[in-house]
Every structure is written in C-alpha cells, then in structure tokens.
Design goal:
Strand content: 25-35%
Radius of gyration: 17 Å
Bound molecules: zinc ion
Distance between the termini: 48 Å
Number of strands: 14
CATH class: Alpha Beta
CATH superfamily: Ribonuclease Z/Hydroxyacylglutathione hydrolase-like
Order of helices and strands: EEEHEHHEHHHEEEEEEEHEEHHH
C-alpha cells in the first residue's frame, strides 16, 4: 500500500493519497484544499485517481474536492449521506467555525459550491481500490455522517477526526455528540486488533492498541471529570 501525506489548510489537516502498488489505483482521503503538490504526486507516480473519499464534511477535509475533481474528472466522490448538508453548505461553513467573514479569503476559506457527490457511503460496504479492500464504518459523533475506512489485510484504519493520538474529535460543532462518538469509536475502531495503525485527520499516527491502553477519553479517566457518576 502506498500512503502519502500532505499537511494542508490552516488546520494542518492530513490529506492522504492511498494506492494499490500493483494496480496503481488510488484514492485521495480528505483533500483539505487545492494543492499542486498533491496533483503532481498522483501524476508523477503513475497513479489512477479512482475516487475522492471523504471521511466527513468539514471544510478542512473537503475544501480541496473542487480542484481535485477538476484535475481528475473521472474520479468519483463519496461521502455519507448524513454529512451532505455540511458538504453542500461548504461556502457557509467558515461562519459557524468562527472564522470572521473579513478574513475568509486571506485564510483560504472562500469556497465555491463543491462538485456533486457520485454516491453515498453505506455502513458495512467493502470499497475496493485495486487489491485493497476497505470496510466502511459509519462513526457518528464528531459529525453525523463521519465514516472510517479500515483495510484489514494491511492492518490500517483511516479515522478522520474520530480519534487522535491521546485524544478524540471535538463534539461541540453542529451535529456533534460526545456519547455517540465514544460509542462509535468503541464499536468501529476499538473492535479492530491492537496492531492496526491509526491514520488520523490531524497529528501523528498511532495504533489501536496504544489508544485502547492510554487514551484518557477511552480508558475512562475523563468520565469522572464529566460528572457521569454523580
Ligand atoms: Zn472535522
Ligand atoms: Zn479536521
């Protein structure tokens, strides 16, 4: 499996190109913004971009879909239906993310309407990219339509903003729900074996085992602070 990371946007989002080494078929998981480097990587490595695969609809994960779709018009675009409002509302997202309108253009957050989605992810579907097989798991909580992509043979899972090294996604934005996020992580990520490498939407990589053992949101340490037992 080829995995190339591009840290994009003011949010330092991890855009990744993931490809099958044998067939050269590739996907781009969460194109954060326009990037010549990203397009050049795909072309210069002889990859065929099959799809723009979106974990969720936040601007730092979908903001580059328009330009990438222009560069690769045959690539399909996939997102869970419960995040369609976020996706098609991209030009309005900077407002509820707290970015002052006067600064949107300077920060690179002035968006046009994004391209039409090809179709929606279905929970439990297997998505093939050459010889790679991703199981698609609906993980609401950070947003309503967040999904993670798990490749069981390669022991890798791409988790977007559900789970980070030592932390979890924020749940205070529209559509967020803390209990739901913990349930999603427990059911769809911690159910994987400890040796799975976890590729997050921000920050460094980790493993399922490390987060199971030491992530304070998952070990119960933070539950006391939240008053769950009172
Ligand atoms: Zn997000
Ligand atoms: Zn993000």
């Amino acid at each position: 499996m080829i995995i190339e990371k591009f840290e994009l946007t003011a949010f330092q989002q991890n855009t990744r190109v993931v490809a099958c080494e044998t067939t050269r078929k590739a996907i781009c998981i969460d194109p954060g913004t326009q990037s010549d480097e990203l397009v050049n990587f795909i072309n210069s490595n002889g990859l065929e971009l099959q799809a723009i695969t979106l974990t969720h609809g936040h601007l730092d994960h979908v903001g580059g879909a328009t330009d990438l779709a222009r560069a690769f018009p045959n690539a399909e675009i996939l997102l869970h239906k419960d995040d369609e409002d976020l996706y098609y509302g991209l030009p309005q997202q900077p407002l509820f993310m707290g970015i002052p309108p006067a600064q949107m253009a300077a920060l690179g957050f002035d968006y046009e309407d994004p391209p039409q989605l090809t179709r929606n992810w279905e929970h439990g579907e297997i998505y093939e990219v050459g010889n790679l097989r991703f199981s698609i798991r609906h993980c609401p909580g950070h947003t309503k339509g967040h999904v993670v992509l798990a490749e069981e043979t390669e022991r890798k899972v791409f988790v977007g903003d559900c789970l980070f090294l030592g932390s979890i996604g924020r749940t205070d934005l529209p559509g967020g729900n803390y209990e739901q996020l913990i349930d999603s992580i427990t059911d769809n990520i911690l159910s994987l074996d400890d040796d799975f490498t976890v590729y997050s939407g921000h920050g460094p990589e980790t493993t399922v085992g490390q987060e199971r053992a030491s992530n304070p949101f998952l070990t119960g340490v933070y539950q006391i602070g939240r008053g769950k037992f009172f």
